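Weekly sync, protein design subgroup
Attendees: M.S., D.O., the rotation student, P.L. (late)

Item 1: inverse folding check
M.S. brought a backbone from last month's batch and wanted to see whether the design step gives back something sensible before we order anything. D.O. pointed out we never logged the input encoding, so this time it goes straight into the notes. Structure tokens as presented (234 positions):
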């Protein structure tokens, strides 16, 4: 797994295992980091890749732009195999009447209103007809949205997650996906954060507690495998 920062080129557990306290070994001895794998049907969720998160002067920075480019490859694969596809974005009322503690903590979020160009999914990932666009007020893609109902309707058991930021809305979405008993799969080169240190440490922790962390290439190989198995069954 190609990570960044102090853990460049290492798997998340290798980054931690380099520490003098052998924290990676401690996690392993305690039974963390079990592989979940893919189930029978996957969907792709792209979290908050909107224009405001591509601008370091607004909410962007770090490796977010690189993650968007890699996500385009993953999105093309998902479309080719007709996976259910959903996008999320943070949307507040023009007058801020629906803003809560999340926006109080990060006031820049309040400018992400429905008609603001900063709130629109980046053009290279623009949703197509039939793909679900989820508007949310908080970090998790599940909180007070229709995402869980939509995934249930499509009989999804595995949720492939791309988006930003790794330490914020991606992580909150992963934790809730796990709580709803989906198998969360994070494509590590398809998620980004304005802080590379936060990106790396959160990938490690999520891989130990709540999801599988794979490369885009590994995720696409699994999607191809599921598609081939489905074709045989038909």
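Designed sequence read out in the meeting:
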């Amino acid at each position: 797994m190609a990570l960044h920062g102090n853990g460049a080129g290492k798997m998340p557990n290798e980054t931690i295992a380099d520490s003098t306290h052998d924290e990676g070994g401690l996690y392993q001895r305690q039974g963390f980091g079990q592989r979940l794998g893919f189930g029978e049907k996957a969907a792709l969720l792209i979290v908050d890749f909107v224009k405001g998160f591509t601008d370091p002067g607004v909410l962007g920075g770090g490796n977010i732009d690189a993650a968007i480019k890699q996500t385009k490859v993953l999105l093309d694969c998902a479309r080719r195999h007709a996976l259910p596809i959903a996008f999320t974005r943070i949307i507040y009322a023009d007058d801020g009447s629906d803003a809560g503690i999340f926006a109080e903590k990060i006031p820049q979020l309040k400018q992400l209103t429905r008609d603001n160009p900063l709130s629109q999914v980046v053009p290279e990932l623009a949703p197509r007809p039939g793909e679900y666009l989820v508007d949310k007020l908080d970090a998790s893609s599940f909180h007070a949205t229709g995402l869980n109902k939509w995934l249930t309707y499509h009989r999804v058991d595995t949720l492939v997650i791309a988006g930003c930021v790794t330490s914020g809305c991606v992580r909150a979405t992963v934790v809730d996906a796990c709580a709803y008993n989906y198998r969360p799969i994070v494509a590590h080169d398809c998620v980004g954060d304005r802080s590379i240190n936060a990106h790396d440490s959160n990938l490690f922790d999520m891989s130990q507690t709540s999801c599988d962390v794979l490369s885009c290439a590994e995720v696409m190989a699994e999607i191809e495998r599921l598609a081939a198995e489905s074709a045989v069954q038909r």
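Discussion: The chain has eight helices and six strands. Confidence is low (pLDDT under 50) at residues 1-10, 13-20.
Action: P.L. to compare against the previous round before Friday.
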